[in-house]
Amino acid sequence: MAPNSFMSLQYICEFASRLLFLSVHWAQSIAAFQNMSHDVQTSLIRGCWCQLFVLGLAQTSQVMSLATILSAIITHLQTTLQQDTLSLQRIKQVTDHICKLQDFVNTFQKLQVDEREYAYLKSIILFSPENVGIRLNNRQIERFQEMCANEL
Hints:
16% of the residues are buried. The chain has a single domain, classed as Retinoid X Receptor, CATH 1.10.565. It has seven helices and no strands. The protein has helices at 3-28, 31-34, 38-60, 66-82, 88-111, 115-126, 138-151. By secondary structure, it is mostly helical. Helix 1 crosses helix 3 and helix 1 (3-28) packs across helix 4 (66-82). It starts with a helix and ends with a helix. Pfam families: Hormone_recep. Keywords: Receptor, Transcription, Transcription regulation. This is Nuclear receptor subfamily 2 group C member 2-like protein.
């Protein structure tokens, strides 16, 4: 693998790691989230980290040039195909996911979702009772989700 490809991949991994960290940090800054037990907080984050991550990608897509990042991932996939390190089927699956992700981000850009709307969307996702295996706080979590949906 060429050094530039490695740096691109390293950058992409660092970007993804930071975005995930910022998503968790954002959740921890919400007073209602802070007032929940550690177990409930963990369950909520585990249940929705992927959706929060995708919304974060959409939110930062123009600042971080998501199209360039996705293009670099596709280039890396082509290299792995040439090196025969991944199956064609797996590469097709990943490429399909990348295309769907780009379509999702394009839709949000067309809708011109602002920072406040992103915050409410992420809150609705975070405060989803389905994300908690513990039944104790479901009603409280539902109320937070309803409040966020009403504000949106």
